[in-house]
Amino acid sequence: MPIDAKQPYDDSNIFARILRGELPSKTVLETDHSLAFHDINPLAPIHILVIPKGAYVSWDDFSARASDAEIADFTRAVGDVARQVGADAQGYRLLSNVGKRGGQEVPHLHVHIFGGQPLGPMLAR
């Protein structure tokens, strides 16, 4: 169910629980400010999630409140992961849903990295 990205951060969300070690994840990369792991329900042969370690609901929240170090680390982590898993070989898609109309389901900023197959059109009609 899509969430309202303007609401305060909910520290009981699944990604907050992964960051606290309460739920397992298959880590691809961990940095000072970011964590990347395999999606548990992959939609493509390559489907990795990259999240900041800070309590940010969305891109709007992150770009307004994160430090320069967090922003740089997160941006680099996305590119590093794409290269590490070989998504860069034939191309990949980055997706970050924001808010109800964007289809955001977890109230923690995250970027999906999809690859390993042709991904089709950007939006279904």
From TrEMBL:
Transmembrane feature ranges: none
Active site per database record: 110
UniProt motif (Histidine triad motif) ranges: 108-112
Domain HIT: 14-124
Alphabetical list of SUPFAM superfamilies matching this protein: HIT-like (SSF54197)
GO molecular function, one term: catalytic activity
InterPro entries: Histidine_triad_CS, Histidine_triad_HIT, HIT-like, HIT-like_sf
Signal peptide: none
PANTHER family to which the protein is assigned, alphabetical: HISTIDINE TRIAD HIT PROTEIN (PTHR23089)
Protein name, per record: Histidine triad nucleotide-binding protein
Organism field: Sphingomonas rhizophila
